[in-house]
Design a protein that fits this description.
Blueprint lengths: L11 E5 L14 E4 L3 E10 L5 E2 L4 E6 L4 E7 L5 E7 L7 E9 L10 E10 L3 E6 L3 E2 L4 E9 L10 E6 L2 E7 L5 E7 L8 E9 L10 E9 L4 E5 L6 E3 L3 E10 L2 E2 L4 E6 L2 E7 L5 E7 L7 E9 L8 E10 L3 E6 L3 E2 L3 E9 L10 E6 L5 E5 L6 E7 L5 E10 L8 E9 L3 E7 L4 E2 L4 E9 L9 E6 L3 E7 L5 E7 L5 E9 L10 E9 L5 E11 L4 E10 L9 E6 L2 E6 L5 E7 L5 E8 L10 E8 L1 H7 L4 H26 L1
Parallel strand pairs: 1-3, 2-9, 11-17, 19-26, 28-34, 36-42
Antiparallel strand pairs: 3-4, 3-7, 5-6, 5-8, 8-9, 10-12, 12-15, 13-14, 13-16, 16-17, 18-20, 20-21, 20-24, 22-23, 22-25, 25-26, 27-29, 29-32, 30-31, 30-33, 33-34, 35-37, 37-40, 38-39, 38-41, 41-42, 43-44, 44-47, 45-46, 45-48, 48-49
């Protein structure tokens, strides 16, 4: 380009040999360069050949060999390089030019003369002037502009080929006339034009025949569409129920009039729903049924004209609300029992049996006025929650309210149900522990009550295997009853039920206590840790164990083997099932294991296990002798030390 320096590195290798003269000429490819720019030429002076040592501080002369003109002289640097910058004259002849670099040798250094040359192609820089008649057009119109091509002497370049590009895509081409002018009328179409700004580039390629440099210039063309708009001439209502019909009229216009036969797309919340065509007057009639595509709540209807290459797209939005009544179904998961948590499932659906979003169900007891709430999970049609009923039994009315979704038309409903009371029937104690001997008499103490009272003088029955009633009893004033039954003769598992049959008249439900025991002639044995304590004066740990069978019998004469701190021993239970162990106290606090095991007998099974005995620091210290005696000795020592100064003082006075 004009007035822009161009740097050309033409590496010239000069080969010099000591005591011998050798001249070698090497040709190079021609390098294009414009007049008025700067060419940088670099040579390297080496001693003893191409791979020899560099020669510094030696003069190298540069010549324009084509014009036989001396250009200048440069000394080589420490690397043997000489760099010469040549400003090409503005009137230098165009075409090939040979540059010669000559080294005349140095007899003192025994260096022979040498030279090297390179070729340059001198070009004329070019300039392009573009005149744009219209910079803003609509699709289908033309972009008119003219181009003038000049060289570096401001002379026109005739018959020069110009190419027009848009976004690197060639559009058209034309040659300049004899005066260097070229006129273009580019058709605006979608093969190259895009809406908005488009960069048009006119390019002239480098021509080494007439020695002209390449040049390119750009200008911007804005492509616009004709504006359009959609108008709602018959506004619809704001709210619609499911299965209702929405009717409206739409008018499509452009800046140059109505648009007949145009397709309008109808979208629901951004999703395509339907399409309508405008008539000869540009009006489209829309009739839309509010069906299952619509959910409850607000919606956005969009009427969109997609546009074409000439007319711009446009759209218009309207907002509507879709309403529905709620279908409610009550499912009680079991009877409603006073003073307990009852589970309820409430199903709620719209007219099309779909979930109602963001709904919360509030259940209000019309007797106690207490409320309970549950949010319907997203995507489901029911909610389950617990509610706690207090107060009287009998028929009870409830009110259901739907909140959180303002698009439900019926937000309240009522229902009634019976409220019952169910007493607790618990086992207080038993004379067996899950095992009984054949024909053993079994006594079970039970209690029948609820949160408000104990059930007095109420019949409870005992059943075996849920088929045979074996005994009955009545509760006392506190609701307690003693149920007696006899274990069967046959061995095996026995299922026993203690049954309260309820009272329908006063809305009391029945209840059953299930108790299972095993009848066996040989019953398991259990060893229990009754208690343990540290006996300080004796420096011993007293451990009391109890041997009992799981049929409730305390066993006498049971041999219990034990291991404590690597010490093994055995003991025997007395008539009350108790046995005492006297064990050494460990020398440090912590948790210690007392292991035990027994042997089988004709009426008991063997057992084994262990107990964890925890001893703290004070117990161990007391057992090691730091108890009351240690404290007394410490006090005596303290008093003696305190008395020494007094005694000494009296001695000095005496």
């Amino acid at each position: 380009m004009r007035n822009v320096p161009v740097l050309i590195g033409a590496a010239i290798a000069l080969m010099l040999f000591m005591f011998a003269a050798c001249t070698e000429t090497v040709s190079a490819e021609e390098t294009p360069i414009c007049r008025g720019s700067v060419a940088t030429i670099t040579i390297t002076l080496l001693q003893n050949g191409t791979y020899g040592n560099p020669v510094s501080n030696q003069p190298v002369e540069f010549f324009d060999q084509t014009l036989d003109v001396f250009l200048g002289l440069v000394l080589t640097d420490v690397d043997g390089r000489a760099q010469f910058e040549w400003s090409l004259p503005a009137d230098h002849p165009l075409g090939p030019t040979v540059i010669n670099a000559t080294y005349r040798g140095n007899e003192t250094l025994a260096l022979a003369p040498s030279f090297q040359w390179t070729s340059l192609t001198v070009l004329s820089s070019t300039r392009m002037d573009i005149q744009v008649e219209r910079s803003t057009v609509f699709p289908g119109e033309v972009v008119p502009f003219t181009v003038l091509l000049l060289n570096d002497m401001n002379l026109p370049l005739p018959y020069a080929q110009l190419t027009v590009f848009c976004n690197s895509v060639p559009i058209t081409s034309r040659a300049t006339n004899s005066s260097g002018w070229a006129r273009f009328t580019v058709q605006c179409n979608d093969s190259w034009a895009r809406l908005g700004e488009n960069e048009i580039r006119v390019a002239y390629e480098q021509n080494l025949v007439v020695f002209n440099e390449a040049v390119a210039e750009s200008f911007m063309v804005t492509v616009e569409q004709v504006s359009t708009s959609v108008e709602v001439t018959k506004p619809p209502l704001g709210s619609y129920g499911l299965n209702d019909t929405l009717r409206t009229d739409l008018f499509l216009r452009a800046d140059d009039g109505a648009l007949p036969g145009a397709r309008l797309q109808v979208a629901l919340d951004g999703v395509s729903l339907a399409a309508v065509l405008t008539d000869d007057s540009g009006v489209a009639h829309l009739c839309l049924v509010i069906d299952g595509i619509f959910t409850l709540g607000p919606h956005r209807l969009t009427f969109e004209y997609p546009g074409n290459s000439r007319y711009a797209s446009c759209s218009h939005d309207i907002s509507i609300s879709v309403l529905s009544s709620a279908n409610i179904r009550i499912i009680l998961q079991g009877p409603v029992i006073v003073n307990t948590d009852s589970n309820i499932t409430i199903e709620i659906r719209d007219l099309f049996h779909r979930p109602i979003q963001n709904a919360t169900i509030i259940l209000r007891d019309l007797v106690s006025n207490e409320t309970f709430a549950g949010a319907v999970p997203i995507g489901t049609t029911s909610v389950s929650f617990s509610f706690h009923i207090v107060g009287r039994t009998g028929a009870r009315s409830f009110l259901i309210s739907i909140v959180g979704n303002e698009y439900v038309t019926n937000r309240t409903s009522a229902f009634s149900t019976l409220v019952w009371s169910r007493p607790d029937l618990i086992l207080v104690r038993s004379n067996i522990r899950g095992y009984a001997s054949p024909s053993q008499q079994i006594m079970l103490e039970v209690r029948l009550y609820d949160s408000q009272m104990a059930y007095t003088d109420t019949l409870v029955e005992s059943w075996i295997d849920n088929t045979t009633a074996v005994s009955h009893s009545f509760t006392n004033s506190s609701g307690f009853a003693i149920v007696e039954l006899k274990a069967p003769q046959d061995e095996g598992l026995v299922d026993t039920w203690i049954v309260y049959s309820g009272n329908l008249t006063v809305f009391r439900m029945s209840n059953t206590l299930h108790y299972t025991f095993t009848v066996s002639r040989i019953v398991p044995l259990a060893i229990e840790l009754h208690h343990y304590t540290v006996i300080m004066p004796l420096l011993q740990l007293e451990v009391v164990l109890m041997a009992c069978a799981l049929n409730g019998s305390l066993l006498e004469g049971v041999t219990i083997n034990y291991e404590w701190l690597s010490i093994r021993g055995s003991t025997e239970s007395t008539h009350d099932g108790l046995s005492q162990l006297y064990l050494p106290v460990p020398g440090f606090p912590g948790s210690f294991i007392l292991s035990y095991w027994t042997e089988s007998s004709s009426y008991t099974l063997s057992c084994s296990g262990h107990f964890v005995i925890n001893l703290n620091g004070s117990e161990v210290a007391a057992a090691q002798g730091v108890g009351i005696t240690g404290m007394a000795a410490s006090i005596c020592v303290s008093l003696t030390l305190a008395a020494i100064p007094i005694i000494r003082k009296r001695y000095l006075l005496d």
